[in-house]
Amino acid sequence: MQNNENLFEVKDLVVEYHTRSGVVNAVDQVSFDLKKGEILGLVGESGCGKSTLGKAMMRMIAKPGKISSGELWINDVDLLKLSENEMRKRRGSEISMIFQDPMTSLNPVQRISDHLLETIHTHEPKEKKASALERTQALIERLGIQRQRIDEYPHQLSGGMRQRVMISLGLVLNANLIVADEATTSLDVIVEAKLVDQLKEIRDEFGISIILITHNIALVAQIADRVAVMYAGHIVEISPVMDLFDDAKHPYTRGLLQSVPTTILDEREELYKMPGEPPNLSNPPTGCRFHPRCPDVMPICSQEIPVLQETTEGRFVQCWLYQDHPNKEMSLDGKVS
Ligand SMILES: Nc1ncnc2c1ncn2[C@@H]1O[C@H](COP(=O)(O)OP(=O)(O)OP(=O)(O)O)[C@@H](O)[C@H]1O
Ligand SMILES: [Mg+2]
Fold this sequence. Notes:
The protein is of the alpha/beta class. It has two domains: 1-94 and 176-191 and 201-263 and 271-285, Rossmann fold (3-Layer(aba) Sandwich); 108-174, no CATH class. It is built from nine helices and twelve strands. It has an eight-stranded mixed beta sheet, with helices on both faces. A four-stranded antiparallel beta sheet has the order 2-1-4-5, covered by helices on one side. Helix 3 (112-123) crosses helix 4 (129-142) and helix 5 runs parallel beside helix 6. The mean pLDDT is 90. Magnesium ion binds next to helix 1.
């Protein structure tokens, strides 16, 4: 059962990849909620589990991966309890995902109109072709693509247009959640800025929620309402966007923000480089997974995993700096550090 304000609730989600070199804990006990009409930025270094989390929310984890446990609540239904057939109906109609390269999701020998009409037909078999076509044309136009281009093939459109076609595939069935995984990464900065503005407009007009997975922190600052920071399969901080930029709590978030240029055109700016690398997720560090790289590490950090806890209203951090523990200041041999 979920809270009314929330569109989506993820509870204790665990996703593993079973590889030859062991089990990769790509998403480990992740819990968060997404409000109706909210844009949530999901950030973190490469390999920390962002795409895995996004795909898991659509139940699109393919072998050797598997969702081992957890709950995914949308509109009072736990998606993990649905049959694959029931899930297929919701994928696209209720939740839809767009990726960096839309060419891999669009069929090169099908016109844009075929993609959209087929999507409508699959989910709404009773809809007449003429009205479905009118609907798709109006939507494409709304997204800034001329009506007549609906008869073209994916390769005839620009990268930005293809992304908008992908968005339209979700909107045409009134999806209420779009997960955009690096969807703007391959676009040039002007097209990217336009698409981002459009995502915001779409949210305002259609009231949908968006998860924006990106390496572009500036983009998150511009568009997101809240930000979730992932590190090594955990969400280590969730916060309203401005609070996060004003006063990041988790040492990892601080490092991540410090490594972003503040003056884009000043090439002389010396950027902070976070020491070390994210861990191998088939053998993650004990305790807090960030402890080997953390400038504020304490003895407890390598011994126990902190929980993601609310520090001040709406701000959640998974870090021992903000949590009490009887042995917080003690090292393993009992000495105070
Ligand atoms: N199909 C797969 N088989 C085995 N391991 C995988 C597979 N897909 C992802 N992983 C592993 O899961 C972890 C998380 O990967 P994921 O792609 O979710 O990260 P990400 O945060 O999206 O990274 P990026 O920013 O580079 O896109 C990584 O350790 C990765 O090696
Ligand atoms: Mg990814």
